Amino acid sequence: MQSIRYCLLRPGAVAPAYATAGAAGMDLRAAIDQPVTLRGSGGTATIPTGIAIALPEGFEGQVRPRSGLAAKHAVTVLNSPGTIDCDYRGEIKVLLINHGPDAFAVASGDRIAQLVVAPVSRASLRRVSTADELGNTARGDGGFGSTGGFGSTGSARREPTRSS
Predict the structure, then answer these.
(1) pLDDT for 18-42, tens place per residue?
(2) 79-85: which pairs have CB atoms within 8 A and are 24 or more residues apart?
(3) Which terminus of the chain, N or C, has less C-beta within 10 A?
């Protein structure tokens, strides 16, 4: 288990904590002076948590949505997952968006997101001259939806159907 230093930056700030022994993410809570209302159908707000952390080198923090907020209120993290780099020492803030039709109020202490600490693998890039040098795969250059999807038969490519 990694040990992570943290600092409470504001009155009312609460340290991130795992809700259960098997939880992958620690709850992040709002640390605000007054409630913030996200208007329905696309309202956004940046909500401070009142905490700063010192992640070890080789790790990142992923700010992810809480499934309960999404399921019950259609409120989620806009840039999900948000990334906290190991060299960032500022306050963690959560960018929320309300996809639901009704306004949603966030109060201080509300659980608004979760923080997952994960290892980071860095890569070195090597430029090649042509796409052929990247090598072939069964998928090739098939992009969005090319491997099937909702209602798909699973085939990589389907011919359009024609009405008579």
Answers:
(1) 999 999 999 999 999 999 999 999 9
(2) 81/116, 84/53, 84/55, 84/60, 84/115, 85/55, 85/60
(3) C
